[in-house]
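RECORD TYPE: inverse folding
INPUT: structure tokens
STRUCTURE:
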């Protein structure tokens, strides 16, 4: 199995994490170092076993295949992998975080992949949430989208 990362995302690499913005779903993702290493090597050429060896080398730790499989499962759930990869490709389903912790012990928690995701609303939604529309009650001009508050209503 050779996983493939989606290409239509904006990526910003920081010291210990990677920030990503998915242009299609308007979701932002923050990948910790472990998840970022796995995602970075999902190039359609590198196998899961090769990703495991790269992860061990780059993280300077003796992580096992469960960590890579968990990262792939999380990347898939975050829709950061191409569709042709199915969970059947990695032992019917990737392990859960709880299963990995139980198997490896709490000392391995540092190596666990973490992906945090949030929905980013379009700019128009932010603008409408920050101002009051025409005909709605207001107390001052800046509250209104039109910047006109006339007799307690936005003009």
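DESIGNED SEQUENCE:
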């Amino acid at each position: 199995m050779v996983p493939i990362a989606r290409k239509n995302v904006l990526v910003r690499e920081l010291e210990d994490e990677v920030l990503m913005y998915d242009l299609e779903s308007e979701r932002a993702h923050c990948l910790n170092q472990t998840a970022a290493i796995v995602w970075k090597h999902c190039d359609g050429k590198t196998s899961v076993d090769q990703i495991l060896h790269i992860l061990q080398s780059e993280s300077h730790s003796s992580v096992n295949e469960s960590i890579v499989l968990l990262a792939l499962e999380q990347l898939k759930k975050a829709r950061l992998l191409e569709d042709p990869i199915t969970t059947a490709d990695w032992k019917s389903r990737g392990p859960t975080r709880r299963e990995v912790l139980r198997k490896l012990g709490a000392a391995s928690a540092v190596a666990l992949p973490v992906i945090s995701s949030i929905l980013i609303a379009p700019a128009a939604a932010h603008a409408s949430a920050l101002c009051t529309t025409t005909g709605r009650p207001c107390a001052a001009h800046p509250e209104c989208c039109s910047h006109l508050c006339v007799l307690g209503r936005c003009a």
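NOTES: The first strand starts at residue 9 and ends at 13.
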